[in-house]
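Q: Hi! First time asking for a complex rather than a single chain. Here are the components, and I think there are three in total. Is that enough to go on?
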Amino acid sequence: MLATLRRISALIRKEFASIFKDPRSRMVLIGPPLIQFFIFGYAATFDVKNVRYAVLDEDRSSESRDLLARLHGSENFECVQTLSSDEEIATVIDRQLAKLVVHIGPAFSRDIHIGVPTTVQVILDGRNSNAALIALGYIGTILEQFNRDLAAGGSAGAGGVLLEERAWYNANLQSRWFIVSGLGGVISMVIVMIVTGLSIAREREFGTFDQLLVAPFRPGEILVGKSVPGMLFGFLDALLFSVGAVWWFEVPFRGTITALMLALACFILTIVGVGLLVSSLSMTMQQALLGSFVFMMPAVILSGFTTPIENMPHWLQIGTYLNPVRYIIRALREIFLEGAGVPMIWPQLWPLLLIACVTLPAAAWMFRHRSQ
Amino acid sequence: MSRSALFLMRMRGFLRKEVLQIYRDPSSIALAIFLPMVLLFIFGYGVSLDAEDVPLAVVLDDPGPEARDFAARYDLSIYFHTHYAKSIIEAERWMTQRRVEGIVHIPQGFAADLLAGRTAKVQIIINGVDANRARLIQGYSHGILQKWTEVRQARGEPALRPAATVTQRVWFNESSISRNYLVPGLITLIMTLTGILLTALVVAREWERGTMEAILVTPLRRIDLLLGKVLPYYVLGMLGMVLSVVVGIFLFGVPFRGSILALLFLSSLFMLASLGFGLLISAVIRVQFVAAQISIVAGYLPALFLSGLLFDLDSTPRFIQIISYILPAKYFVTISHTLFMTGNVWPLLLPNALALASMATLFIALAYRNITKRLDG
Amino acid sequence: MGLGTADDQAAKSDIVLVVRHLCKSFVTKKGAPAQWALDDVSLEAHAGRVTGLVGADGAGKTTLIRTAAGLLLPTSGTVTVLGLDSAKEAIEIQRRVGYMPQKFGLYQDLSVDENMTLYADLQGVPMAERPERFQRLLRMTDLTAFTRRRAGALSGGMKQKLGLACALIKSPRMLLLDEPTVGVDPVSRRELWKIVYALVEKEGIGVLLSTAYLDEAERCQHVVLLHEGRNLDEGAPQKFKDRIRGRVFLITPPADVKPRQIQNHMAGQKGIIDATIRSGRVRVVTEHGWGAQVAETLPAAWRPHIREALPQFEDAFMALIPRRQGHFQIDPHPAVRKGLPQDEVVVQTRGLEKWFGAFEAVKHLSFEVRRGEIFGLLGPNGAGKSTTFRMLCGLLSASGGEIRVAGHDLRRSGAQARAHLGYMAQQFSLYGQLSVAENLTFYGRAYGLGDPKLRERLAWADAEFDLARWRATPAGQLPGGYKQRLAMAAALLHEPDIIFLDEPTSGVDPLARREFWLRINGFAEQGVTVVVTTHFMEESEYCDRMLIMSQGASLAMGTPAEIRKLVRTPDRPDPTIEDAFVALALGEVIPGGHAADNGKGDSP
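A: Yes, that's all I need. Here is the structure of the assembled complex.
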């Protein structure tokens, strides 16, 4: 027992030393996580801002100007051009000079005054249909306010239905919260995959693996020694980026620290299993890197990290139950935004542990099998 | 033998070798053909921004026919799947349990307000964790209200008279299917993988295996070396592109409104820019491992996140937009979106094509400068 | 050079390579002092001659050949190949010269034929000439039967021959060969040399060849001895040998003395430059002026057995190369480890088999190794010696049969058995980024050494291997010889009963090789069992017994003397182990039962 512990501790110390002393590994530990933190934080946003639009106002009345001024005043919109004829609309949209054109017909103010419902036409560039739909939503809200103000001013009939909207957990609907809250999970996965994924492959490539196998290590001891550094780095990074999410990107943290720690620990355990599996399958560091990449890419895309799982076809939704990232993303969002404690995230934890029960023994088996 | 005959013979030999290697090395085929297909399927099926069948709780505190009529519009919508809750408390419990993503609460007095010409209120509560989805749900709700208003007006029912309403016309992607813009964007990502990652790996592998040293001492000139590497991977990348376009059009039903010739021409420019970048990496980095890392960090990630493929560039902070101007992927995403959904809009395509052409020239020139026939640079 | 004789004047016309005051430095890091790989080297090579570049690791052989091929730019000085300046007219040189780098760039995925076609295209060989030319090259290299086989599936020797064929594709006027025979078994080496001679004699081309095998230097017409980037001396091999006439001696061991003991004794003596074992005798080179006194250094009983011998190139090389610092001196009176029963069997295999799919890599092998023995595993590339070796250390599992190491069955108690053995891999296989001390500490702990014991052994390693001043240096930055010392220290740190050495001296220069064997001898004298594979045939002389393998089966087993006796014929009264090996591998001699039966009890 003592000898086992001594061997494991020797291995762990060596792993740390070689990670810190290998410039390639150091680079992997520092560069990509930081780049990802900022890219995801800043660039990965579904918020629609600075919508470039053009105006075709055929009415030129005080009412139409009032409506356009509201649009102009919105921080989400940016007027790029005022058109003078119908024909120009196609040019502006085709060439992507504007994302949408607001077209106010010549009868706009007249209709309002005589109490006939009138319309404002909005022509949208559907090339990015998501942004288009959201911009349209903004315009709808502005128009509703316009209507209500008109009604209050008595220049139009009152009444109608008002939709009173409230969003739970994310009142201002910032999509950054959605992305950044899951970031700790995704980045720690990248770290763990790369550190553990490369560990055995590095030994193979530098020829040190045989030397290690000839020493009186048991496969289990090597497995433990190899996973501890990756787990530690992954855990530290996850915590660091969770703190970064709260301090830098101002995402709220409403859950409990215990739940966060527990969720991350379960997740990292699972990923260590996958990383070791990839590592024991690869003969070179490059294969391990590409192997990790091939695992991580679909795992992230199909996890609900950027786009909702609910939008996928049904068969694919079922497939995502095998994806460990799915569970941590869900758990992290519940912890950060919904204020979850341990009992609430438990449904996300046991599947993770179940997956770990498969990947870790599989890694141990592969590792022994491959080393033969 | 004449100089050109010798040149042709060298090129023939070099190209034949590259083709045989690609043909016999499963990893090249995997990177050029298999990986693009996997990406296409994962993105094509896995990434969608279109919400459908959103589970919604409806609470009818007003027993009147107007309220039921309004709620029925939600039942009919393809975007929602309604569950009727007995009380707002039950509905809120469903929300916390994640059984529903939103609540439509029609309060007591809805019909009375409506009929009296007062403003009737409907409360919409949405789970805001996924802000994008929440916004879409909001948008759908507005649509439903507008539709209901129109229907009531048509039936001649009283007292619903908003002054102005929006009529929307979405061009190019009439039914607003997000796949229609994701799949054309993906082709950019796929060509980036072949152009940068595969090329950088293949050249680094020649250094690692020592074959480069033997090639360097033949009368092969630097330009031969450049051409010999560009041509085969250009063809391979274009094959991957064509395959992705075919799968996109026929499997995912993405429209294609431009001309094939324009697509071939413009994607060639992009392919050359990517290849140039890949060759530049490989001329400087002679280790596969490092080349792979750089290609992923400098090629794959920016093409995915900073090109407007998935996220709207206009909405990102200024500095991200500035970075995106140096990425060939940004220009090709625009080109590809336009060719697929709009058509040959040359006034838009030309400036982008020009940007790609100058980048291709720059990268290939830099790669050529950095290719050396000596071991010590 | 340039002695001004009439012969030399005549030869001027066919000078193919002129190197003048060539210096080449490499900048390793910014600010770090430049490393001079070549320091004012001048030499010439002639058509119709083999010019050999001989030297230890880091002598600058590869740098010189690469500069001549136009792959490197001289820092100063000039290289002129066939009248063309290598710095300015590299492409023209590359049209006329055949070059074979150390690791020839064969495309593994391409067949023999496709590789040759590729180089023919690149070199612009006219289509009309190809069929005849290819056929001749294939015949010359004995590859006619393998034209469709992929290069990756060829044996090491065949790959080298194919590389040579590719370098010769356009009848070059000069051939540059960088260590063409490294890692090639003796049979293939002889074939390669035959091809080179044929080219020089029949086609009159000039060959510049570098080699680390000193016996190959004798096959060159002209030898340039490089040492640390300088041209130490040059001339015909005979010239080198003449200079040390009277300083080389052979000692035939008396009946009861092992040659190793004599070697260990001589290696420590003053005035002795070199002591090696050759064909069962100890070969000694003395310093200048010590030739006459050499007998006095011997114990009286051995004196009648010494006689003067004809110098070989290797002797001259050892005499010329400056001694390096901290040159190893062996303790002439090693302490035998106490409490270890001698003559105990420590490694035993019975009916050992290994299958890779349907391929039988090792066929029913049985042998025993006793305590304190040095046991050699020899064989051509692909004979199954590596597979056997890896099974012995527990890196591969056996498909059938039994292995017992240090009293443990490897199948059942692998980890316990492994605690008793030390292992040194073929390539340097310690953690390059970790310092010397960190590496040793890791292996010490891995073998379960407690802190006091670990400190004691670290001190031992520092003293024994002279590692103290390198403790904080990353292992990857150690000079070649010290890397090997460190690897050995790591393998011996836990005082194993048995050490396994896999090609320990491949890629190691002749000086470090000698030092290494002296140490191994010392450990064997202390009772450590040594199992070693090697492809340097002269090194097998250090073994007590050896097993020669071919195609997975045992070809012969016995002491070096017994092996040599197998191939002794009237024409070849004094065969070397290499002769024996070649004869056995080619099937010229079918060993009778006696030699093979000698070492084992139950041969099939």
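A: The longest strand of chain A covers residues 118-125. Let me know if you'd like any chain examined more closely.
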